[in-house]
Amino acid sequence: MELSRVRELNRAADLLRLRAVRMVAPHGFGYLGQVLSSAELMAVVFAESFRPGTDELVVSPGHYIIVAYAAGPELGLLSEGELTTYGYDGSSLEAIGTESSPVADITGGSLGQGLSSAVGLALAAQLRHETSRRVFALLSDGELEEGQVWEAAMFAAHRGLDNLIVLLDANDSQVDGPVSSITTLDPIADKWESFGWAAYDVDGHDVASIADALGQAIAQSRPAIIIARTSTARGLSCLPEGADGHFIKISGDLIDAAVAELEARRA
Amino acid sequence: MHNLPPYPTVLKPYGRAFVELARDREEILCLSGDLTRQTEIDLFQEEFPDRFIHAGMAEANMISMAGALARRGFIPFVHTFGVFATRRPLDQIVNCVAYPNLPVRIVGFMPGVSSPGGPSHQAIDDVALMRALPNMTVVDVADATEIRQAVVAICDVPGPVYLRLKRGEIPIIFGARHQFSLVRAHVIDDGDDVVIFASGMMLSSALAAAQTLEDAGVSVGVVNVPVIKPLDRTTVIEMASRARAVVTAENHSVIGGLGSAVAEVLAEEGLGRRLRRVGLADTFAEGAQSATWLFKKYGLSTQDVVDASWEVLGRDGVAPQAPVLVTPPGEYAPV
C-alpha cells in the first residue's frame, strides 16, 4: 500500500475517534473504547470494501453502533448535525443500537446473535443469486463466549457462504476485565479455520495489514474472518492509565486534550 | 357443525396445507431444526428442496437467521417441537423477530403434555412466553380443518406468529364449512350457566364435557379460542356476561396462557364471574409412558372439565361422570 494511502486511512480512523469523542463527551462517559479499538478496522472496511446500497453491515455488539454512526457522514447516511443527538432522550442514535439505528442493516444489544443475522442476510443473497452482494459482520471477541456464534459459524461454512466476512475486534476487553483473564479464546484463528472458515490474524491498528487481509478474505470461496488485534486505549495517549476500556469516563480537560490530540494528528 | 368424539383423524394436515400454500408463494422458506418428519415438513422438502433449509440442532441460530431472511422479503416458517421453538431461543425470538416485527412463522409441535417425553419435551409454557412478547400472534388450533385454514391465514400476518400444533394423528372436529378466523373466537354452543373457553387439544375435552353437563341439566356455552393473542375480547365479554361462571381449558400451564388471558379480561371488565382454569397447575409433568396417563394425572381430562364446571357453579353432590369413550384405531377422543 502506498504511504499516502496509509496516511489517508489513518486519518479516516482518527476521524472516527474524533467523532466518537464528541458524541460521548456531553454525557461524560460512554462506548469510546470500542471506537478506539475498531477505528482502523472499520475505517479500512468503509474506505476500501464496503459499498453502500450493495453490501450489508451487521453490528453485532449493539454498543459498537457508535463506530457506524461515526462513519455515517462519509457514507452519506447521516449528517454531522445528527451525530450531536447521540445518546440523548428522543434521539434515534441510541448508545446501544436499536431498530431505528441508521447506517447498520442490523444491530443487536443481546450479544452473540449478530453473526446469525449476518448468516441470514448472506443466505438470502445466496438464495437470490445476488452474487456481488457481501455481508460484513462486526463482532467483538467477548462475544465469542456466546455459543450461538459457533452455531452460526458451522452453518455458514456448511452452506459455503463465501459472501460473508466477519470483522472481529479482538480488543481483549469485556465488562469484567480482559477477555483473556476470563475465558481463553486463543487460538482464535485455529478455531475458525477448523470450523471451515478462512481466518486472518492481523494487527488491528495497521491499516495496510487490514486492507491486505480484507482483499484476501473477499476473494475466498468460503466465509472469512479478520481477527483484528486491538487495544481500547489506542490513539488517545491522553487517557489515564488503566481506564476502563468498556465504558470510558471522559470530561472537562480530558475532552479538550483528546480533541486536541486527534486534531493535531489529523492536521 | 362439529362432531362429538371419537373423531376420525388424518396425518400431516399441516405438512400438506403448507406445501399447497408454498406452491403459490415463492417467498416461503421452510427451516427445520432436525425434526423434519416429526413436524410434517418432509413433504415440503421433497417438493421444494431449494427452499428447504436444514438448520440442524441449533435453534438460536435458526431463529436469528429466520429474522434476517424475513428482512429480505422471505416468509420463513421455522419448525421444531414447541419447547425448542420457544423456551430455548426466547432471547433470539425477542431480539431478532418480535422486536423488529418480522413475518417469521414459528411452528411448534407437541404441545403441553401430549408428549410422554418428560418435562424437557413438554411445551407447557410456550403460549405464556410467546403471549408476553409485543407484536406476537399466538395460535393454538383444535383440529385438521382449522390447521389447513390457519396455515393460509397466518401467512400474511405482517408480524411474527407462533403456531402451536398437535403431533401425529390429528382429529377432524369441524366440517369443511368451518371458518377459522384470526380475529373472532368461535362460539360453538350458547349457555346460561357456565361458559367454557378452550383452545387446541382441550377443545374436544370441552365439547365432551359440555355434553355430559347438558345431560345433567347444566346449560353450557362452549367457545373455541384458537387465537390466544390477540384475544377476541368482545366474544369473551359477551359470552361470560351471559353465563354465571367461566371455565378455561388449555393443554398448558394455567399461568400465562388462555386461562390468564381470559382472567385479565374478566377482571378488567369487572364482570365478577367466578373462574376455574383447567390446565397444568403450576407443575412439571413427570413419570409417563403415555400422554393419556399424563392428561389424567395432571387434571386435563374431560372429567376434570366437568368437575371444574360443576364446582364453579356451586352444584351439590357428585359431578356427572363423563362416559369412557372407546376409541377405535385411527380415531381420536379426548382423555
Give a quick precis of the structure.
The complex is a heterodimer of chains A (267) and B (335). Chain A is an alpha/beta fold and 267 residues long.
- Strand count, sense and closure of the main sheet of chain A? 6 strands, parallel
Shape of chain B: globular
Bin the helical content of chain A.
Answer: 40-55%
Q: Tell me the count of domains of chain B.
A: 2
Strand order, main sheet of chain A: write it out.
3-2-4-5-7-6
CATH topology of chain A: Rossmann fold
Q: Which structural class should the secondary elements of chain A be placed in? A: alpha/beta
Tell me the name of the CATH homologous superfamily of the largest domain in chain B.
Thiamin diphosphate (ThDP)-binding fold, Pyr/PP domains
The oligomeric state of the chains shown is heterodimer
CATH topology of the largest domain in chain B: Rossmann fold
What name goes with the CATH superfamily of chain A?
Answer: Thiamin diphosphate (ThDP)-binding fold, Pyr/PP domains
Strand content of chain B: 15-25%
Tell me the overall shape of chain A. globular
CATH class (first level) name of chain A:
Alpha Beta
Average pLDDT rating of chain A: 96
Can you put this structure into words, describing what you see?
The complex is a heterodimer of chains A (267) and B (335). By secondary structure, chain A is of the alpha/beta class. Chain A has one domain (3-266): 3-Layer(aba) Sandwich (Rossmann fold). Chain A contains ten helices and eight strands. Chain A has helices at 3-24, 33-49, 65-75, 80-83, 114-127, 147-158, 179-182, 188-194, 207-219, 253-266; strands at 29-30, 56-59, 106-107, 135-140, 164-170, 198-203, 224-229, 248-249. In chain A, the strands form two sheets. A six-stranded parallel β-sheet of chain A has the order 3-2-4-5-7-6, sandwiched between helices. The longest helix of chain A is centred in the N-terminal third of the chain and has 22 residues, at 3-24. Chain A is globular and about 50 Å long. The model of chain A has no long low-confidence stretch (mean pLDDT 96). By secondary structure, chain B is of the alpha/beta class. Chain B folds into two domains: 11-171, Thiamin diphosphate (ThDP)-binding fold, Pyr/PP domains (Rossmann fold), CATH 3.40.50.970; 186-314, Rossmann fold. Chain B has helices at residues 13-24, 42-47, 59-71, 82-86, 90-98, 126-131, 144-155, 202-215, 233-242, 258-269, 291-297, 302-312; strands at residues 7-11, 28-32, 52-54, 75-81, 105-109, 137-140, 161-165, 169-171, 186-189, 194-198, 220-224, 227-229, 245-253, 274-280, 331-332. In chain B, α10 (258-269) links the parallel β13 and β14. In chain B, α9 crosses α10 (258-269).
